[in-house]
């Protein structure tokens, strides 16, 4: 593994050289142009909105070609960035793990084999893959059967020792635990579909054929790890209101509420308690389907011995491809796995502490002043994360020189593009404006904290890096204000035109964040 050093001093020298080549001076020595003065007045007017009364706002905009600051309000103030934290994590992963990095899941046998009998244990070793599906475990089981194993006399051992036993971020709130965006982190897990929310199960309620009967409850993937306590009822008519809630400390999902006859099924993503056992259960069922019987128990958390012989393996998609569901859908689980994988690769320790140290090292080399920020997890779910907007813009400017930049830039959500795996968390925002299919930026949302940081090409063709971080507001959403600023930047020009003289641009209505839910992506709404 190779780590390319990018000392802070070299980053500064490069910026100065670029500015000199462009015939510019530093931002502090250069008087604002009339266009810049108008831009400042426009953003100031947006930030004077009553929704921000008593709130904190940090906004900074920089011309990436010259390094000139076009707008700055409270850019050095430490604010809760929510999922903008993923900018730090994803950039470090692309550099330190590399775009070609894959996660490997292996099956090995320890013991003698004769006439289809394994006189020993079968080991399922997790490599951290957050995208592995039930179908992938089925293919692993098929490989085991193809290797001639028919009976395992010993145990099925689920090896999750690549990472530590820390399942939940140290600062995550207890009431987030059942929701998909706060799934437990393990080196051995299962994702239910191609959103790749590892460590979750999709639970679905289908109405009965008549009022008074229980709805039919199914799970994807089907498994024996979770138990359903169905307390819901089918009603003749009326509004459907179904709730799926996993009880703390266990795997019982309580289904309550009402669903009307003839209505469409209702479903939700529910986290599991101990994803290692979930993965082992799914794999054991797959072995049974392929004619492989395990006579022993399922044992969790034991390391695969060096003497074990490989039977099957599954490699994940490369990291370059993983960046798409990770950043487009703001997948918290991916961020945390990548953090622990960074720790494992760089120091041999698959922990949050080791991974965060690796992230800090990379972004510091890229010019970020790590002494001004605090990062407590990979995803931004922790409210103890604090990052000044100026440091996001420093990173956004620096990574443009990285060989993987184009892949990373394309993986960011794109404003107003309705394709879910292009527009991502911005697909319903800024449509029909100058920012549509232009702004590439990371969203961020927690209750009372919202952020948007990324890139926009202005009307003169300049690529601008910007960061907007808003905290401590009481309204349900301030996404529209972020959008207005982004639209103003997309329309910015130094030329004297009627459009240039327009003040505050209008922005389409933005999705609202559900009250009381900490999130970076609320299904199916945006957050």
Radius of gyration, rounded? 25 Å
Q: Biggest sheet, open or closed, and with what strands and sense?
A: 7 strands, mixed
How many beta-strand elements? 19
Note the beta-strand portion: 15-25%
Organism: Micromonospora tulbaghiae
EC number: 3.4.16.4
GO molecular function: serine-type D-Ala-D-Ala carboxypeptidase activity
Protein name: D-alanyl-D-alanine carboxypeptidase / D-alanyl-D-alanine-endopeptidase (Penicillin-binding protein 4)
Molecular structure report:
This protein is an alpha/beta fold and 527 residues long. The protein is built from twelve helices and 19 strands. Strands 3, 4, 5, 6, 14, 15 and 16 form a seven-stranded mixed sheet that branches. A five-stranded antiparallel sheet has the order 2-1-19-18-17, sandwiched between helices. Strands 9, 10, 11 and 12 form a four-stranded mixed sheet that branches. α4 links the parallel β4 and β5 (151-152). It starts with 7 loop residues before the first helix and ends in a 37-residue tail after the last helix. The model is unreliable at 1-28 and 513-522 (pLDDT under 50).
Short description:
The protein is 27% helix and 22% strand. The chain has twelve helices and 19 strands.
């Amino acid at each position: 593994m190779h780590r390319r050093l990018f000392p802070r001093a070299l980053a500064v020298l490069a910026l100065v050289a670029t500015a000199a080549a462009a015939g510019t001076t530093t931002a502090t020595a250069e008087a604002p142009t009339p266009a810049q003065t108008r831009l400042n007045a426009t953003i100031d007017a947006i930030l004077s909105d009553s929704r921000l009364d008593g709130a904190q706002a940090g906004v900074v905009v920089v011309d990436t070609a010259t390094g000139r600051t076009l707008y700055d309000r409270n850019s050095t103030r430490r604010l809760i960035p929510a999922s903008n934290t993923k900018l730090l994590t994803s950039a470090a992963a692309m550099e330190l793990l590399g775009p070609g990095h894959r996660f490997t899941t292996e099956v090995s046998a320890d013991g003698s084999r004769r006439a289809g009998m394994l006189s020993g244990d079968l080991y399922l070793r997790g490599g951290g893959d957050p995208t592995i599906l039930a179908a992938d475990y089925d293919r692993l089981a098929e490989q085991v059967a193809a290797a001639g194993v028919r009976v395992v006399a010993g145990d099925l051992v689920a090896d999750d020792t690549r990472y530590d036993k820390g399942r939940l971020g140290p600062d995550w709130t207890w009431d987030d635990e059942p929701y998909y965006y706060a799934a437990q982190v393990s080196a051995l897990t299962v994702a239910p579909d191609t959103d790749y929310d590892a460590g979750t199960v999709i639970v679905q309620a289908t109405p009965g054929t008549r009022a008074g009967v229980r709805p039919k409850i199914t799970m994807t993937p089907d498994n024996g790890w979770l138990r359903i306590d169905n307390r819901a009822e089918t009603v003749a008519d009326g509004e459907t209101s179904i709730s799926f809630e996993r009880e703390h400390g266990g795997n019982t999902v309580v289904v309550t509420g009402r669903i009307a006859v003839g209505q469409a099924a209702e479903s939700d993503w529910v986290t599991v308690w101990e994803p290692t056992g979930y993965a082992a259960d799914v794999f054991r069922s797959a072995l049974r389907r392929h004619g492989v019987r395990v006579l022993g128990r399922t044992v969790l958390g034991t390391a695969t011995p060096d003497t074990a012989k490989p039977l099957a393996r599954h490699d994940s998609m490369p990291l370059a491809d993983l960046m798409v569901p990770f950043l487009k859908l703001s997948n918290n689980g991916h961020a945390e796995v990548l953090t622990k994988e960074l720790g494992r690769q760089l120091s041999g320790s698959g922990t949050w502490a080791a991974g965060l140290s690796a992230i800090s090292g990379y972004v510091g080399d890229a010019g970020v002043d790590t002494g001004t920020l605090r990062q407590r997890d990979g995803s931004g779910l922790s409210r103890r994360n604090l990052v000044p907007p100026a440091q996001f813009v420093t990173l956004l400017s620096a990574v443009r020189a990285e060989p993987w930049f184009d892949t990373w830039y394309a993986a960011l959500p794109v404003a107003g593009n309705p394709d879910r795996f292009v527009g991502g968390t911005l697909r319903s925002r800024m449509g029909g404006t100058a920012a549509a299919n232009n702004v590439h930026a990371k969203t961020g949302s927690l209750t009372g904290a919202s952020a948007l940081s990324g890139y926009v090409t202005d009307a003169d063709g300049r690529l601008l890096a910007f960061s907007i971080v808003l905290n401590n507001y009481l309204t349900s959403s301030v996404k529209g204000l972020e959008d207005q600023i982004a639209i103003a930047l997309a329309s910015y020009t130094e030329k004297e035109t009627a459009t240039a003289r327009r003040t505050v641009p209008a922005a389409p209505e933005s999705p609202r964040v559900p009250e009381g839910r900490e999130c970076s992506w609320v299904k199916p709404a945006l957050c």
